[in-house]
Amino acid sequence: MTFNLFEGMMQCQAQREELCPGATVLRGFATRDEAAIFAQLPEVTTAAPFRHMVTPGGFRMSVAITNCGSYGWVTDRTGYRYDKVNPESGKPWPSMPSIFLRLAQDAAASAGFPNYAPDACLVNRYEPGARLSLHQDKNERDFDAPIVSVSLGISTVFLWGGLRRGDKPMRVQLTHGDVMVWGGPARLHYHGVLTLKDGYHPLAGACQINLTFRKAA
Ligand code: SIN
Ligand code: FE2
């Protein structure tokens, strides 16, 4: 009994990696919900199809984006913002599936952020060759709530930087089911995703799907 309990505790610890105070990787945390997530995703992406948005500087993003929840993150020539409607259709974003919300709340709580109430879920689709350059998430109204990022499909290398753009980022391999949570002192750290390599995952196909939860308003 005692031995099993000890083993269980060690396993628990092995599944959490603290990158710095406030930033935790929860290895495999979303795996238990993988079937439900992939069952819900088509509802979201049919109502609000993925698209390659344009940055304020006029560049087409290599990552294809959509959203669910009360707010969606968008970019166009006028800037980055959260919008209650999908500018493409003029309609509200599809609602956040309850399984998504519960997963985000459980992950946040496991990483030390109880009472998480995200109102936006950005869905990013990376195909081989897509990348996300180093940036801070700072379009949210306040920075009290953490960001919860769920990686699904083929592996990515997440770049975890510091508070200054020039801080050398750590390279963190994220595989299917891994969840990253960053908040508190880590909330404004720079981060990004290295160019995605070829791969295949039975649920996601030849891409990586990332669900990023935020409290926007
Ligand atoms: C983001 O940084 O906003 C999204 C991260 C990701 O897609 O992994
Ligand atoms: Fe980000």
Defining traits:
binds succinic acid; 18% helix; globular; seven-stranded antiparallel β-sheet; four-stranded antiparallel β-sheet; Jelly Rolls; binds fe (ii) ion; alpha+beta; 217 residues
Helical stretch count? Answer: 3
Q: Any guess at the CATH architecture?
A: Sandwich
- Encode the helix/strand succession as letters: HEEHEEEEEHEEEEEEEE
Query: What characterizes the major β-sheet?
Result: 7 strands, antiparallel
Low-confidence stretches: none
Give the overall form.
Answer: globular
Please tell me about this protein's structure.
The protein has 217 residues and is an alpha+beta fold. The protein contains three helices and 15 strands. The N and C termini lie far apart (47 Å). The model has no long low-confidence stretch (mean pLDDT 95). The chain has helices at residues 2-14, 34-47, 98-110, and strands spanning 16-20, 23-26, 64-69, 72-76, 79-83, 85-86, 91-92, 120-126, 132-135, 147-153, 156-160, 170-174, 179-182, 191-193, 208-214. The strands form four sheets. The chain has a seven-stranded antiparallel beta sheet. Bound molecules: succinic acid and fe (ii) ion.
What's the helix and strand layout?
Blueprint: H1 2-14, E1 16-20, E2 23-26, H2 34-47, E3 64-69, E4 72-76, E5 79-83, E6 85-86, E7 91-92, H3 98-110, E8 120-126, E9 132-135, E10 147-153, E11 156-160, E12 170-174, E13 179-182, E14 191-193, E15 208-214
Antiparallel strand pairs: 1-2, 2-13, 3-8, 4-5, 6-7, 8-15, 9-14, 10-13, 10-15, 11-12, 11-14
The structure holds succinic acid and fe (ii) ion (FE2).
